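Hi Y.,

Following your request, here is the sequence exactly as I used it, all 210 residues.
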Amino acid sequence: MVRVLIADDHKMFREGLKQILVEAPDIIVADEAGSGQEVLDKVYKNDFDLLLLDISMPGLSGLDVLKDLKANKSRLSILILSMYPEEQYALRVIKYGASGYITKSSASDELIQAIRKISKGGTYISSSIAERLLFSIKDTSERLPHETLSNREYQILHMIALGKTTSQIADELCLSVKTISTYRARILEKMNMKTNAELIHYALKHNLIN
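Below is the corresponding structure, written out as tokens. Let me know if you'd prefer a different format.
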């Protein structure tokens, strides 16, 4: 049996996932979590075979959780299940140690297939993302500006590009407005830009938002 921990901040979505996975006789939903900190608390206190992890959660993001667990609990398989299209986050999470990436719009049987493959030591990503990952490994001499950002910086860049205000971002991430402003300044500096408009234009050009 594959013991799965479901991590998503929407209870109704977690319930939907449990209904999907109950149809698979070799998969059991052992527990669930609604925040990044709750994920860490449960993983460090219990044994799971696989973590089904959302990227967008209050407080610690899925990217923060991924980084922490890969540093301290590297044997745990992690499948990212996100609302964001592959091209926005898949490459980044695979580089940080995730075993796979699948969107929330994927079919139920694809999710089960991904869990089974990862539980056997495999990786679950599309062929296009696999090609991009191989290319990025072969050629690291010319990294795009957004690839130099930390996970949190990249998350905030994405939210800025979606048109969210500093206050809205602070509320969603449970951080202070001052902290978000500091991250914004750092992002602008790293990307050699001066305004949000430049960040939005860049994000659109590089398909970082829908």
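The mean pLDDT is 87.

Thanks again,
Q.
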